[in-house]
Amino acid sequence: MGKVLVFGHKNPDTDSITSAIVYAYLKQQLGAEAEAVRLGEVNNETKYVLEKFGFEAPRLISDVSEEASEVILVDHNERQQSADGIENVKILEVIDHHRIANFETADPLYYRAEPVGCTATILNKIFKEKNVEIPSNIAGLMLSAIISDTLLFKSPTCTEEDVQAGKELAEIAGVNLEEYGLAMLKAGADLSDKSLEDLLTLDAKEFTFGTVKSIVAQVNAVDVNDVLNRKGELVSLLNKNVEEKGLNLFFFFVTDILNNDSVAIVAGNAAEDAAKAFGKELVDHQFDLPGVVSRKKQVVPVLTDALS
Amino acid sequence: MGKVLVFGHKNPDTDSITSAIVYAYLKQQLGAEAEAVRLGEVNNETKYVLEKFGFEAPRLISDVSEEASEVILVDHNERQQSADGIENVKILEVIDHHRIANFETADPLYYRAEPVGCTATILNKIFKEKNVEIPSNIAGLMLSAIISDTLLFKSPTCTEEDVQAGKELAEIAGVNLEEYGLAMLKAGADLSDKSLEDLLTLDAKEFTFGTVKSIVAQVNAVDVNDVLNRKGELVSLLNKNVEEKGLNLFFFFVTDILNNDSVAIVAGNAAEDAAKAFGKELVDHQFDLPGVVSRKKQVVPVLTDALS
């Protein structure tokens, strides 16, 4: 058996990068030859995390079938979110916390999904089940993934298990959870070096709601006005994307990580319907999303119901 | 939250029936309102097991959406093997040891699949993880599922974990593993009350290999001649099925549970190719499968490779 590659989804967030590193570490402790890799650029938040706990970013790969014959997926399962060439390798394991869709294997595998807020929360359990000790710096990565995915426990995706795991891991990592959490989120929400193009692609996922071809993209900000100040340009760019990609909807929303509210800026012929789905009127491509922080729990289900 | 129904696949085997009972028991111990149900008739082997350990067969259901809004699947995931109406209920959990295919959810769920020989082996782990004690009669059911799925540890699907779990469970159940295992398999291999129609449907699964529409059915026997003696009739019946169901292949094989060999009787326009796939010549619809006991590991992959 050759080396097994471990990776999260394309357009990786902190959970996808750190869970690959963490699970590769665990597999190594259990005797497997495993290497964490990544499918895209490391974002500012993740860079802050890796530096804080003394890790390098995993190696970037493109077509996975040119690199290995066996892989482990973390933090995703849907084929369109996974590596190019994924259909030509054997998926040995999946550790994930998303719905299952567009996923199929020829053989039995180890598949561990739980409806919790973060992959790292599941990994924390697996370390215990396997009786492997979690080193301080690995705990730091896991804690960071939980803070990132749950927006410091504020997201409706967050479960009691995530909170519990976060507390345990903060203790092992030796950091103050609240202080470190806020600093990390702020590092991720620092948009000063980002172009508007960057903002639209930083955390963008493709969806099809019925016949409505869509992109739903989210950015976190300490001050949403940093983004809203550039709204004219932003709307032009959204319209350009809609046209070039043949979209019916580009749903972009900026989340205020301090107040846990969001503002949506949308374009495409389904834009008004999208606003209505949230009981809002679309005014100049914009509407408020009070209390909304989670794409998975608070945006995608609403759009699915209204547009499908 | 109403009652959660727990069930295995259509055409249930011992693992599908007992794992539903066992996991419903575990969920009850953890405070959930769970009921085991079944999607088809209980076979002779399973009847022997239920009687031995003092259980009634679970309630038979047809359209699951008329019974509950939330379900847990054990020992399967593919939609065509699951309950009618499955697309209209929420799948909360899956505990399985098969490949994943034709399965999709709208929401995150608990999905636990491991590449072991039997669902009960995974359940044995979950009992430990949840710190729930396994009562003697529940251990008996779990042990029986492992014996059934691994053909008393002889199947190539059997892993070291299955053997270990089997030994632990035999001790808790207070039975002699070898003696009980053979008696149970013999009870299941008693074909004396079965019509030929019964034999073809007892453990039949549908597959499509490329464009080759197929049924692959298996029966266990203490003496394969019990079945081969009726070969003329059997072949007529296979041909009838091929015609009526528009099949390219009906692959029926009888497994000798004492010697761990099988004999295949096949019909359909892909019958010769099926024999060739095993390096055999088809003689009067028949060929030997020495050492073959597992549809999943030794038959389906060979047919997939050769016919797809």
UniProtKB/TrEMBL annotation, chains A, B:
What is written in the cofactor note of this entry?
Binds 2 manganese ions per subunit.
The GO terms describing molecular function are: inorganic diphosphate phosphatase activity; manganese ion binding
The record's catalysed reaction(s) read:
diphosphate + H2O = 2 phosphate + H(+)
Specify where it is mainly localized: cytoplasm
Q: Which residues form the DHHA2 domain?
A: 181-307
Q: What EC number(s) is this enzyme filed under?
A: 3.6.1.1
Q: Which InterPro entries match?
A: DDH_dom, DHH_sf, DHHA2, DHHA2_dom_sf, Mn-dep_inorganic_PyrPase
Subcellular locations according to the entry: Cytoplasm
Q: Which family does it belong to?
A: Belongs to the PPase class C family.
Cofactors that this protein relies on: Mn(2+)
* Binding, Mn(2+) 1: 9, 13, 75
Q: Where on this chain does Mn(2+) 2 bind?
A: 15, 75, 97, 149
* Source taxon at top rank: Bacteria
Alphabetically list the UniProt keywords.
Cytoplasm, Hydrolase, Manganese, Metal-binding
Instruction: Please give an example of a GO cellular component term from this record.
Output: cytoplasm
Q: What is this protein called?
A: Probable manganese-dependent inorganic pyrophosphatase
Q: State the organism named in the record.
A: Ureibacillus terrenus
